[in-house]
Amino acid sequence: MNKRVLVLNQDYTPLTVCSIQRAFLLIFLQKAELVSQFDGQFLRTVTRHFPKPAVIRIGKYINIPYKGVELSRQNVFKRDSYQCQYCGTEKELTLDHVLPRSRKGRSSWTNLVTACKSCNTRKGDSLPEEAGFILKAQPYKPSFILFLRDFSGYIQEEWRPFLTKARSA
Length: 169
Prior knowledge:
Number of helices: 5
Helix content: 10-25%
Strand order of the largest sheet: 2-1-4-3
Shape: elongated
Order of helices and strands: EEHEEHEEHHH
Number of domains: 2
Structural class: alpha+beta
Largest sheet: 4 strands, mixed
Oligomer: single chain
Radius of gyration: 21 Å
Number of strands: 6
């Protein structure tokens, strides 16, 4: 039961991801409804079996004014696919400020990139261009839906229709 379940708000916008046990409990207590299930998979008791939820929808609308992705070391690594944005290696990763802190660079989604220790040391307090580096991709702040869809590590095929709708909305 290591699969995860996509939780939708009442208007079918993605809210979060939860465990199958939590999703089943919400359905059983009639706080959510089953929208999609994992094909041919069931949760079994001694006398009954229930479809294994893949996507559920909460019964009451939950107003969330802003749902953002927390700026953290691991989330920047996920955004950058665990690769140095200068040389592409996946070893000895650290964070680099594109505009160095010594030049008033801030710790923000658009100023932090994943860099290996070697590139980070060679770049030092320079701008990437000054050090002869070219960024593989410009740093950006991922939206919650984009992050859930692309970086959560738990993407299920059954979720795709709900995550693609949300991105185009």
